[in-house]
């Protein structure tokens, strides 16, 4: 029994080795691949670094073909950099050269000081030719860290001499390509670097063992006249509505990692618009966003408010210009939002009319800027079930958190929330609108989707119903119907008296116009004005009599009015302030009319001057028309006051003898 168990264990170990896998001391199982040839190209870009690796893999040492392979990235910062290559990895793509197929790349985990990425091959192979494209952010370190405002920035790039790979490499070479604006300051190690123009070549190197990428480093120190922006945090909320549009609201924290300002700040370099020889080249003035053609309601705001200096042109990139220039070490927080029509972002399944598929861009719209942390929240309509998420192909470092959130008109059922978190993201410009995330969900059938419109209709109906009810309610504190009737009567009297006062004021303005035009005696006008004056004086006396206001003797140039309260033996009306206003207005008109009459009688005008004569006659006709309106309102007011006076006398117990004054006024009005 013992010998049999030993034989079984040895057979399992031999088969394990023959199948070409070895358990490394670092805790990860890798295949027995060999890198026949590795060609690495490092391309400097304004704020990112692109690394393209062509690798020829061979599995001839294996007893069978392999269906996967591994890539390795250092998880520790190199040199004095703040971030590692894995932390700065924003994009990775692996293509099989022979078939041209894109392969699936997954984060396999951290083992020791390295991070492994698993690449799944289209099928089990003995040989493979792969093209690996990677884009890294935050790979430049300003050196020196502080510069003057107009000084040219210099940066340092640090990388491993050998491409980090878990497999042995037979032959390898590395080429670094600079931009035309950059100038080489220093290259280390000096002996192995070949500098030619804007390119630096290392190698070729032969027989490189695995795990030898960290000891020897490449240091490239160049002038870099570009800003180094990145998003410390990018948070976007996509809210789906079947009744309107899909709204996208993003909160961004933009940081310029360029060399900090070491001296004084001056606005002069930013105040010159054209042909400015003093440009601050390490300053972030604007960033570009790529948006779908169907977007609308674009809004760009910061902590102060709306920023109106941004530019959006259909068919081209949208340009977001910050409120202030961002020098090295500065940051800005802003909000960028827009809306998409539901028909472009939301599709209905052909097999099921209640199955919807949402397609939204996974990356933030500023594609040339690296995002250290990105949070994408998708708020689905209330009642959505059967949610399925299809993330874009690539590095799978996403986290799905199903939650609920209440929004507009959500009272019973919350909206479904899907949060997708990723660390390190940048999408090439060519794939900006193609890298999308798909979320499929099912909506209820029948009248389930009509609950919110029905609730809105009920709310509007209840609002109008409440208005009708409150409009018919009386919130006044009264003791009986008699007092309520008295309050209503006073309110009506007050409104009519205000109208009378306004019309009398208009008459005064008309009389002033007549006075300015007239330049001689016009006897026809004198008669009309005298008639108006007499009618006004008669009206004033009637109103005084009805309101219980008796004129006192004149002292000097002032007339004193004695006001008698309702209920006394001398008066019939209690609203003394109203009575004062009406009587004073009538007296003002009478005085104005008398003054006009005296002025016209003293001036001289020839009746042959037909033009001026016609003007005066037109103005007088307008005055007479307005006076007729005033007189009619005053008569109505007097009639109502008489009725109120009689009713009040009956309630207060006045005799017939006490109402003689009111009856006399009624007779006078009927005669008129």
TrEMBL record:
Residues 646-672 are annotated as: Disordered. The chain crosses the membrane at residues 453-470. GO terms for biological process: protein N-linked glycosylation via asparagine. The keyword Signal applies. Residues 1-23 form the signal peptide. Pfam families: Ribophorin_I (PF04597). Pathway: Protein modification; protein glycosylation. Residues 657-672 have a biased composition (Basic and acidic residues). The keyword Endoplasmic reticulum applies. GO terms for molecular function: transferase activity. Keywords: Endoplasmic reticulum, Membrane, Signal, Transferase, Transmembrane, Transmembrane helix. It is found in: Endoplasmic reticulum membrane. Component of the oligosaccharyltransferase (OST) complex. Belongs to the OST1 family. Subunit of the oligosaccharyl transferase (OST) complex that catalyzes the initial transfer of a defined glycan (Glc(3)Man(9)GlcNAc(2) in eukaryotes) from the lipid carrier dolichol-pyrophosphate to an asparagine residue within an Asn-X-Ser/Thr consensus motif in nascent polypeptide chains, the first step in protein N-glycosylation. N-glycosylation occurs cotranslationally and the complex associates with the Sec61 complex at the channel-forming translocon complex that mediates protein translocation across the endoplasmic reticulum (ER). All subunits are required for a maximal enzyme activity. This is Dolichyl-diphosphooligosaccharide--protein glycosyltransferase subunit 1. It comes from Perkinsus marinus (strain ATCC 50983 / TXsc).
